[in-house]
Amino acid sequence: MISRKDFLLKAAGVMGLAVVSPVLLESCGSKNPAADACTPQNLSEEEQGKRKGLQYVGKSPEAGKNCANCKIYKKPAKKGDCGGCELFEGPVHPEGYCISWLAIV
Ligand code: SF4
């Protein structure tokens, strides 16, 4: 038999975990940490709108198509850094993608 005190303590722990877990996961960028590093939060609404309009994502859903092999990707100065794109301002992840992907021929 569990005491009322133990029950309340366990319930509070479970509730706390349920509330805190999504916050911790979000702050860790656990969904795709590398892509998150190339997703700036301080872009103007216009620049955010451009990304949204082109359906830019930090991790390509298209096999064999990503920013690194797109014709208009601006390679970073240093390997491992975020690159850029000719179509909008700000950092772009090499594994990212948008609907304007253009094959290098
Ligand atoms: S056009 Fe799209 S796929 Fe190509 S580099 Fe820019 S964001 Fe990436």
From TrEMBL:
SUPFAM superfamilies: HIPIP (high potential iron protein). Gene3D superfamilies: High potential iron-sulphur protein. One of its GO terms (biological process) is aerobic electron transport chain. Keywords: 4Fe-4S, Electron transport, Iron, Iron-sulfur, Metal-binding, Transport. GO terms for molecular function: 4 iron, 4 sulfur cluster binding; electron transfer activity; metal ion binding. InterPro entries: High_potential_FeS_prot, HIPIP_sf. Coiled coil: none annotated. The keyword Electron transport applies. Specific class of high-redox-potential 4Fe-4S ferredoxins. Functions in anaerobic electron transport in most purple and in some other photosynthetic bacteria and in at least one genus (Paracoccus) of halophilic, denitrifying bacteria. Homodimer. Belongs to the high-potential iron-sulfur protein (HiPIP) family. This is High-potential iron-sulfur protein. It comes from Flexibacter flexilis DSM 6793.
